[in-house]
């Protein structure tokens, strides 16, 4: 007798330092490949997961999501604990094995749900730290020049809205039908630094300051957030004027925008899905 097939959604956070990004690659450690390895072991057969976002090497996540089909008798609410034990993130299992990944939540979704195709928006966070601490080099962009947040915020206002963001796209990504995107919110604030994954509600230490750029949109081009960050940093450092942002966007020319900020400061913070699934995500 065949078991019923379930459509499972995972919420995942990870430190991307030791991974070659999200997407599975032969002979390289990736987040997707590591999770699939554990699920396949538990299932006794190959299991493939579909992630919402393909984060690059060194990029972190606080709210990555992935879905997969599952017909095993393991209760859905037990899946995070079982996988985390296998990873070692729960203090059990083989030590130091994929310890940079944690499954935060698992839940059953309707048949027509898909982690990638049901997504309607994302929020990314980018951290810039001026402490110069070598222990933060993999968690933030260490930048020691003074940044004027008011200048950066003035430029950020010009980014919000619906535009053709071709100027913020790096060559080499998946070809897109259109480079028009809507940025619904872009905030720039000094935040507190936690002891592990950055949380603005935790108390910051007294060494330097940490700036968080948070951007929410219906979709993002390849390296879009990191190029926007680099451009805003140049404006905050006085190397460009805030009003130049309009000209940069209208140019649709990558060479007009600023540098690409390093991956270490980037976090996939939150995923938003079609509202018809709201009742399953509460």
Task: Please describe the topology of this protein.
Blueprint: E1 6-14, H1 31-43, E2 50-51, E3 60-70, H2 79-87, E4 101-109, E5 119-129, E6 141-142, H3 149-159, E7 161-164, E8 180-191, E9 210-217, H4 224-236, H5 244-251, E10 266-273, H6 278-281
Parallel strand pairs: 3-10, 5-6
Antiparallel strand pairs: 1-3, 1-4, 2-3, 5-9, 5-10, 7-8, 8-9
Helix pairs in contact: 3-4, 3-5
Describe this structure in words.
With 282 residues, the protein is an alpha+beta fold. It contains six helices and ten strands. Helix content is 21%, strand content 27%. Strands 1, 2, 3, 4, 5, 6, 7, 8, 9 and 10 form a ten-stranded mixed β-sheet that branches. A hairpin with an 8-residue loop joins strand 2 (50-51) and strand 3.
Total count of strands: 10
What's the helix count? Answer: 6
Mean pLDDT: 89
Task: Please bin the fraction of helical residues.
Answer: 10-25%
Q: Roughly how many Å is the radius of gyration?
A: 20 Å
The helix/strand order is: EHEEHEEEHEEEHHEH
Low-pLDDT stretches are 90-96, 195-206
Main sheet characteristics: 10 strands, mixed
Work out the oligomeric state of the chains in this entry: single chain
The span between the termini is 33 Å
Tell me the strand percentage band.
25-35%
Principal-axes shape call: globular
Given helix and strand content, the structural type is alpha+beta
